[in-house]
Amino acid sequence: MFQGSNALTLDAKGRISIPTRHRDALLQQANGSLTLTRHPDGCLLVYPRSVWEARREEIVRFPMSARGLQRLLLGHAQDVDMDSAGRVLVAPELRAAAGMDRDVMLMGMGSHFELWDADKLAKSEAQAMADGVGDVLNNFSF
């Protein structure tokens, strides 16, 4: 289960270093094999390959009415492997699609991660707070 946030920096080659606290779990769970793809919110999704394979099977079964989302998720998916230093290359096409330049945030989301441009995430979170949570938390207590 992945949780928490990490401020990271894309290096000159477009790589991020997976934080040590997640690296060991990813090596154990997926031998360091990951899949990155686009998300409709403007971030990238980072899945351990074994988790992605199950999700991919679900996405393939989307109805034709969801073809655009299917194209976004499957058409942009790229398999990557962590190198010996725990780094992952984020392809130029994916970096451009997510508006990533240098400062990024890796957010643990349970079974996977979201990778955000740091400024874009801050704006998204500010908007979410301004919008409120509606009825989602009616039966939840902190």
Explain this structure to me?
The chain contains five helices and eight strands, in the order E-E-H-E-E-H-H-E-E-H-E-E-H. With 142 residues, the chain is of the alpha+beta class. The chain has one domain: 3-Layer(aba) Sandwich (Chemotaxis protein chec), CATH 3.40.1550. Strands 1-7-8-4-3-5 form a six-stranded antiparallel sheet. Strands 2-6 form a two-stranded antiparallel sheet. The longest helix has 14 residues. The radius of gyration is 16 Å and the shape is globular. The protein starts with a strand and ends in an 11-residue tail after the last helix.
Question: Could you name the key traits of this structure?
Answer:
single chain; 142 residues; alpha+beta; Chemotaxis protein chec; 6-stranded antiparallel β-sheet; two-stranded antiparallel ribbon; 37% helix
